[in-house]
Amino acid sequence: MSKPKPKDRPAPGNERPPAARPGKPAKRTAAPRRPRSLYTPAEVHEIFRRFSVQRPEPKGELEHVNAFTLLVAVVLSAQATDAGVNKATRPLFKVADTPQKMLALGEEKVGDYIRTIGLWRNKAKNVIALSEALIRDHGGKVPDNRDELVKLPGVGRKTANVVLNMAFGQHTMAVDTHILRIGNRTGLAPGNTPEQVEQELVRIIPDEYMRHAHHWLILHGRYVCKARKPDCPACVIADICKAPVKTTSIPAPLVELAPQEVPQAL
């Protein structure tokens, strides 16, 4: 008589959880906690206090003359340098600084102005489409609401946050590659996605510094905490920074930078 075959056993690591006993609910597996900032509220406050001393009135490097041209410039800046966008938009904005003028210019002529910018064909199409949408749905005005902004062609959450912050003074955080890197490298706002980093930064940054926090972090990432190699000796928060890659704990002198000391986009 043959022996009964043993029941198939699951591979290690794939075992099923034991069934709940009658009358007792099954235990829920807790969702993994999202990483939080490594810094205390006092440390975060000091970081942004120093940034505010260094650059009291930080400015974005995309040239614009009103909310509409800012919106267009930010849309064009995707996968392009600010300097490259400025070179193309200076002559464009002289002839088309409103949705009505941009629409009258037409997709082909807009394309001629921005031909030196990456993905220019699709961007020209988006600029015309968003101009049409602004005229049709908003009376030619740029809305000051994120939900309405992200409905516009070529406008994502980051673009909307930039416009809300710069054009309307709202306390938004637009996370670009620089801020995403700083958030994770330093442990200031760890996150797997730009939105996770954004949420953590908004949570920890004191309200008194939120108006300019986006620019401070971008400029710090662009000129000090650089992608390839951070310039730690030039960092005013080197003593507070918890980045494993930092090369010094001695902060740079905390002095206000004159406008000419802030390099233009390369």
Task: Write up this protein.
With 266 residues, the protein is mainly alpha-helical. It has helices at 41-54, 67-76, 82-95, 99-105, 107-113, 120-138, 146-149, 157-168, 177-185, 194-204, 210-223. Helix 4 crosses helix 6 (120-138) and helix 5 (107-113) packs across helix 6.
List keywords for this structure.
about 270 residues, mainly alpha, 11 helices, disordered C terminus
Number of DSSP-assigned strands: 0
Radius of gyration using CA atoms only: 25 Å
User: Structural class, please?
Assistant: mainly alpha
- Output the helix-strand order: HHHHHHHHHHH
Describe this structure in a few short sentences.
This protein is mainly alpha-helical and 266 residues long.
Topology:
Layout: H1 41-54, H2 67-76, H3 82-95, H4 99-105, H5 107-113, H6 120-138, H7 146-149, H8 157-168, H9 177-185, H10 194-204, H11 210-223
Helix pairs in contact: 2-8, 4-6, 5-6, 9-11
